[in-house]
Give the backbone structure.
Amino acid sequence: ILFNAIKIIFDIFYSLNAVDLPEFFEDHMDEWMTEFRKFLNYQTTHPQLISSDDDEKPSLLHKIQAKICQNINLYIEKYEEEFTKFLPTFCKDVWSLLMSSKSDNQFDLLVTSSIRFLTSVAKSVHYNLFQDPKTLADICQNIILPNVHMRESDENLFEDDPINYIRRDVEGSDH
């Protein structure tokens, strides 16, 4: 129940910050970002948090982490000046999260949200965080290539129901 409430709180956070940065959130940004980092780096073996009823759906913890990535992506896109001091640590945290993610379907939302955040950073004035050739090689080898291949479940879906496969593929890129 607690983690469901946390996910709802992070959903509300996004809604309240989507149009404009409220003064309250600007004044308390350190506290919010500290909590975001805690949940991005949260490790557990509790089955209710790391698995779901359907192997295709993300777990509750992965939904929370994906929502955090969406929230910090909102901040880098709309409130870059206020968010700059947190950027290096969040880049490192999101990078670590991506490296630990598997290529299972349940990680799709998290991986997509994480990549979207890193893409926003790379498109911003902070692109220099990715200038190191080793970083670029790591991105290609550890993020792009593992996520480009077709999984067996994707092949089966494509063979059994090609229209649904295309629908899921298009919807997956819109999250």
